[in-house]
Write a structure and sequence with these properties.
By secondary structure, the chain is α+β, with helices and mostly antiparallel strands. Among the domains are: about 30 residues; about 80 residues, no CATH class. Helices cover about 35% and strands about 20% of the residues. It has a six-stranded antiparallel β-sheet. A four-stranded antiparallel β-sheet has the order 1-4-2-3, covered by helices on one side. Strands 9-12 form a two-stranded antiparallel sheet. β2 and β3 form a beta hairpin. The N and C termini lie far apart (about 65 Å). About 25% of the residues are buried.
Length: about 300
C-alpha cells in the first residue's frame, strides 16, 4: 500500500525538525568554543536573515559587530562593571550623580536582609540585565533570589554575547537605593554618543506592562523609529534639565568611539545608570529598517 502524500510530507517535515533540533543541540554544546566572529555572524543571521558585512559595515547593527571584534573593548572592563565604574563616574562628573549603595558582597549568604530597607535594587556587577527590583521586602522570596543570583554568578557574560568588555569582570552582588519619581515611574534616558558627542536619546516606557520605546534627537524632537520594541504612542515630556543630561553624557563618553550613556532622572535629579558599548548586542532590528543605515552613518569607525 502506498503512503498517502500528506503522510509522506509530515514524515519529511518531522525528519527536518529532528535534524534542526539535533543541529541546534550541537550548536549549544559547542557554542563557547566557536570563535567570536562566527558566533556574531550566526547570531546576526538568525535575527536578520542576512550575514553582517564586517569588512565594510554600513548599518549600525553591522558596525556594532565590527566594534565587538575590533574595538578593543576588553580595555573597558572597569567601565561596564557596575561597581568599579563608580570610581570613573565620581572622577569624571562627581559623586553626586552616583546612586547611593547599601553594600557590596561576594556571596548571597553575607547579606543581612533584616538590615535592608523596604525597597532596594539588587544587581550583579559583571553583566547586563542582572537586576532584581524589590518594591516591598515583605513580599520577596529569598530562596528564589538566592537561586537567581547563584545562576547569574556562574555565567561569564562575555560568552553569552561575545562582548569582550565583560570577559574579566568579577561577579559581585551590589544593592542600591530604590529610585522612583513622584509619579511612581522611573524613566531612564539612554543617550547614544559617538566620539564623545551625544546624538540620540532612547526612552523606554511601560517596562513591566506594555514595553514601548521612543527616540529623540538632542533637541528633543521626536524621531520616527524604534528598535526591537514597538514605537511608543505617547510623547515623553522634555526633561527640564536636558542640557545637564547631555553634558553628563558628553563627559562620560569622551575619548570613546561609541557608547550609550544610561541616566536616570527622578524628579529632575540626574543619576548615572550604566555605560553600554553594544546596544542590544547589535541584534535589535530597526523599525523602519532605513534607520539602521541612518544611525550607522553617525558611527564613524577607523
Amino acid at each position: 500500500m502506498e503512503a498517502k502524500p500528506n503522510t509522506v510530507i509530515k514524515a519529511i517535515h518531522n525528519v527536518k525538525l529532528q535534524l534542526l533540533q539535533f543541529g541546534y543541540n550541537i550548536y549549544v554544546r559547542l557554542y563557547k568554543y566557536f570563535p567570536d566572529n562566527m558566533v556574531n555572524s550566526l547570531n546576526y543571521y538568525h535575527v536578520f536573515r542576512r550575514f553582517p558585512n564586517i569588512n565594510n559595515p554600513k548599518r549600525y547593527t553591522e558596525k556594532i559587530q565590527w566594534y565587538k571584534l575590533y574595538g578593543k573593548l576588553e580595555r573597558y572592563c572597569a567601565l561596564v562593571d557596575k561597581y568599579e565604574v563608580r570610581d570613573f563616574v565620581a572622577l569624571t562628573v562627581g559623586k553626586k550623580y552616583l546612586i547611593p549603595i547599601i553594600g557590596v558582597w561576594d556571596d548571597f549568604d553575607e547579606i543581612d536582609f533584616c538590615r535592608l530597607p523596604k525597597q532596594f535594587v539588587i544587581k550583579m556587577t559583571h553583566g547586563s540585565g542582572y537586576n532584581i527590583i524589590c518594591t516591598d521586602k515583605a513580599q520577596i522570596n529569598l530562596e528564589t533570589i538566592r537561586n537567581k543570583l547563584s545562576n547569574w554568578k556562574k555565567e561569564n557574560y562575555y560568552e553569552i554575547g561575545r562582548e569582550r568588555q565583560y570577559n574579566n569582570c568579577r561577579p559581585k552582588i551590589m544593592i542600591e537605593n530604590y529610585l522612583e519619581d513622584q509619579s511612581g515611574e522611573l524613566i531612564d534616558y539612554k543617550i547614544f554618543c559617538f566620539n564623545g558627542n551625544p546624538a540620540y536619546i532612547q526612552v523606554d516606557l511601560g517596562r513591566t506592562t506594555n514595553h514601548t520605546r521612543a527616540f529623540y534627537d538632542i533637541h528633543w524632537n521626536r524621531l520616527p523609529f524604534t528598535t526591537y520594541y514597538p514605537l511608543a504612542s505617547r510623547n515623553v515630556i522634555r526633561p527640564d534639565n536636558l542640557d545637564e543630561l547631555l553634558t553628563l553624557a558628553e563627559k562620560l563618553s569622551k575619548d570613546l568611539l561609541h557608547v550609550r550613556v544610561d541616566l536616570y532622572n527622578p524628579d529632575g535629579k540626574a543619576f548615572f545608570g550604566e555605560l553600554t558599548f553594544a546596544h542590544g548586542n547589535g541584534f535589535e532590528p530597526f523599525y523602519p529598517d532605513e534607520w539602521d543605515m541612518i544611525v550607522g552613518n553617525q558611527f564613524e569607525i577607523p
